[in-house]
User: Fold this.
Amino acid sequence: MDLSKFLRDVPDFPKPGIVFKDISPLLADPRALRASIEGLAELMSKARVERVIGIESRGFIFGVPVALELGVGFTPVRKPKKLPWKTRSVEYDLEYGKDRLEIHEDGVEPGQRVAIVDDLLATGGTAKAATVLTQGLGAVVAGCFFVVELGFLGGRKKLGGHVVESLVRFD
Ligand code: AMP
Assistant:
């Protein structure tokens, strides 16, 4: 199934010059939605994943059903001040400025094999931050998995050393 047909290009969102890949048509189509979940689970099938991490917020949409499909648990990585328990935090670069992501201190276990899931890989800064949080807690990054990859932005390079897989790639 060609999932690229279910992505809507929205020019100049959220700011001029960005072409936003809107996943709403994919989420609205039950066959495309199922294909994306099953596709991600298939990409992870050889990674011996023991926990799925989803990055707020669109990473939650895909991460939870993929975790169910694999029969493992799910851990959210969230924007600052959202998680109620003790957290670890990492700062990362955005195109303009900086942002932070947080994880619960007991969100993953030392030695656990963790898959990081988000809807889209652009420059890789967000996913890289999630790998830093994962490794900071002593867990092992089994790979980073995306529905969409904007290959021309070089995110894969930023995640160098980790397995990086995506269902739809734009080069
Ligand atoms: P990056 O850290 O540059 O890899 O950006 C990835 C994060 O920003 C993901 O959580 C995406 O949902 C979002 N994102 C960045 N660029 C786009 C885009 N062109 N279309 C849709 N989402 C994007």
In short: The mean pLDDT is 97.
